[in-house]
Amino acid sequence: MSEKRILIASLLKPINDTRMYEKLGLSLSKLPQVQVHIAGFKAPPPSAAPSNVYFHPLFQFQRLSLRRAAAQVAYYKLLQELKPSLIIVCTHELLPASHLFCRLHTCRLLYDVQENYALNLTSQDNYLPLLRQLLAFGVSSMENSLARHVAHFLVAERSYLLELRFLKARYTLLENKYKPSAGYICPAVPVQLQEKPLRLLYSGTIARLYGIFDAIALAEKLHQLEPRTTLTIIGYCADRATYQQVLEQVQARPYIDMVGGDRLVPHERIVRSILESNVGLLPYQPHRSTFRCIPTKLYEYAAHALPMVVQHNPIWHTFLQQHQAGISIDFASPDAGRLLLQIRERQFYKPGVPSGVFWDSEEQKLMAVVKQHLPQIS
Question: What is the Cα 173 distance to its own chain's centre?
């Protein structure tokens, strides 16, 4: 039996992206007689990838540029070269080219819906107001018009099931749960921080909306109370102005360290920072584009029994209470003294590491969907 080729593609995510490679890619590489190809933004390929996983770093451009439009040509050339049997598109912009290829060849199309793109565009300040509305209209029109040609939808957030009408009943919820690496060891619980110096962590996308400046402000307050307190910021900042502001604030505070910032950071390096820290910060600013979502780092921190300080949100607060995983506060006006007392007095993760935060359950659902659309695979 000849090998079937599965292409996982994103215009904006790097080829070593956690969801594309570590979750979708590595899971599907376990199927017999399958090659997994990952196309995305230019980044260092993972060094320990299985022999049947291939990387195609096709894209490298600024957010608004002609090279972004030209990337469609490079992508379609890759489709013609690989002739995949199944395409998993992780960015809306690659839907038209993927649909065209599937019309002309024996190939199925899955759409991995990682964000509510139209809502993000209209509610966030990444573009000028008129441009935001035009881009959101274009994205929404594209998704709705091509939805009937998508064989199945993979959906990263439960909230999208209510927000995105084009999903209909052809979807499988694949939440961004944590997939441990081979060296993962289940941490000892409960966790107590009575005497230990606070090693705070902000990981992932560095952005104002995600509360980077609130994290720095809280770290400063806690450092004033306990001078041994440190903060590690690790991740990538796409906005240059924000990056410069963060850099200036970090340089003025020797107890804050930044890893990455103006460059992508491999996920294994982020995991190492989780292991080196004892309090994880989730200072997301209240916003309609993130309010009903579950941050990936919430699963990551819980898997490593890392106590969390989280912006108050009904969904996140329920999770913290259920698993005794952390403390909810208002990052806009934190009571640092009270927070410090709570951190020192509480025992975290007394019920144990939550079993529901791991990717295993999602992998089973993914395999079932892919086998359905690659019937020769057993």
Answer: 15
